[in-house]
Design goal:
The protein has six helices and four strands, in the order H-H-E-E-H-H-E-E-H-H. The chain is an alpha+beta fold. It has one domain (3-186). It comes from Jeotgalicoccus saudimassiliensis.
């Protein structure tokens, strides 16, 4: 049986196990978020999924309510990020609610990270090569994330994404999972420190 035929089953199994074992952490983080600042525990945001389908991605809220009005990217010393938010971003705990996205069928454990509906471009503005990144479900982590993450330009990220789409397999996914865990344990930077696209029409503070 080809890997793509049972990848979905593995995603569901891993997500269920993750939700069960991490439930105590979910409760602690939820209480901490609610105690520190007003607003919802879960942050929802429109993203582009497989074949350009729009869905709501789930994250633990790490910024004050309304922070997106000043841009969606966290910058060094960003005052919009709460104290709890700094910790859960640094440890990638804020991404854990995406297990729910996986169960819903929006995402996979491994795949290209789902882009915003308008950044770096709208779906219609991706060229034929770039559109290949949407041929599979987006992932919690991907090949681009373990090869530079936000230090890469969007053009570079998409090349890694397309490479993944053309070559994904069980062993490739396993390799990305291991490399992702190493990066999480090292708590490597998750900030956009460089210009991330050559598209001059894009607001680089979003």
């Amino acid at each position: 049986m080809k890997y793509k035929n049972y990848k979905r089953k593995l995603d569901i199994l891993i997500s269920l196990i993750g939700l069960i074992f991490l439930m105590p952490l979910f409760i602690i983080v939820s209480i901490a978020i609610k105690v520190e600042s007003k607003g919802p525990i879960i942050f929802k945001q429109k993203r582009l999924g497989e074949n350009g389908r729009i869905f709501n991605i789930y994250k633990f809220r790490s910024m004050v309510v309304g922070a997106e009005k000043s841009g969606v990217y966290e910058l060094e010393g960003d005052s919009r990020v709460t104290k709890v938010g700094k910790f859960i971003r640094k440890t990638s705990i804020d991404e854990l609610p995406q297990f729910l996205n996986i169960l819903k069928g929006d995402m996979s454990i491994i795949g290209p990270r789902p882009t915003l509906t308008y950044h770096p471009w709208t779906y219609e503005k991706y060229d034929d090569f770039q559109l290949q990144r949407f041929l599979v479900k987006p992932g919690v982590s991907g090949w681009a994330q373990v090869n530079g993450r936000k230090e890469l330009s969007w053009e570079e990220r998409i090349k890694f994404d397309v490479y993944y789409v053309e070559n994904y397999s069980f062993l490739f996914d396993l390799k990305i999972i291991v490399l992702t865990l190493i990066k999480v344990l090292r708590m490597e930077s998750n900030l956009n420190i460089n210009e991330t696209t050559n598209n001059k029409d894009v607001n680089r503070n979003d």
